């Protein structure tokens, strides 16, 4: 967030227990996303501030292997990376098989 949040003045982390899931949301007000923002999860697609384009693709792959979902959300002044994990994790044997 520090590297990609040019002009950031607010950074927040929220955690929430939902009925059947746990949610973690990391937000800042210094980042901006392109119109095709979902592409930032593709391997090799780097943002405007550079990088290798691996971080978010690895994050999504790991989250999906744990049965979680990851998404980017934007509103007028904030960008949020949202992770939602099921409240019951897959068995360890299921994780090894994938």
Quick tags:
2 helices; alpha+beta; 98 residues; single chain; 30% strand; four-stranded antiparallel β-sheet
Describe this structure in words.
- The protein is of the alpha+beta class.
- It is built from two helices and four strands.
- About 5% of the residues are buried.
- The model has no long low-confidence stretch (mean pLDDT about 75).
Indicate the topology.
Layout: E1 11-17, E2 21-28, H1 55-65, E3 69-74, E4 79-86, H2 92-97
Antiparallel strand pairs: 1-2, 2-4, 3-4
Rg from alpha-carbon coordinates: 15 Å
Order of helices and strands: EEHEEH
For the secondary structure, the number of strands is 4
Approximate strand percentage: 25-35%
Question: What is the structure about, briefly put?
Answer:
The chain is an alpha+beta fold.
């Amino acid at each position: 967030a520090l590297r990609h949040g040019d002009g950031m003045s607010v950074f927040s982390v929220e955690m929430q227990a939902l009925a059947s899931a746990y949610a973690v949301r990391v937000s800042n007000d210094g980042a901006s996303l392109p119109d095709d923002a979902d592409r930032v999860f593709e391997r090799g697609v780097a943002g405007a501030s550079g990088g290798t384009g691996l971080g978010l693709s690895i994050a999504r792959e790991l989250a999906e292997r744990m049965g979680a979902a990851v998404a980017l959300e934007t509103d007028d002044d904030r960008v949020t990376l949202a992770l939602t994990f099921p409240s019951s994790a897959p068995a360890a044997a299921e994780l090894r098989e994938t």
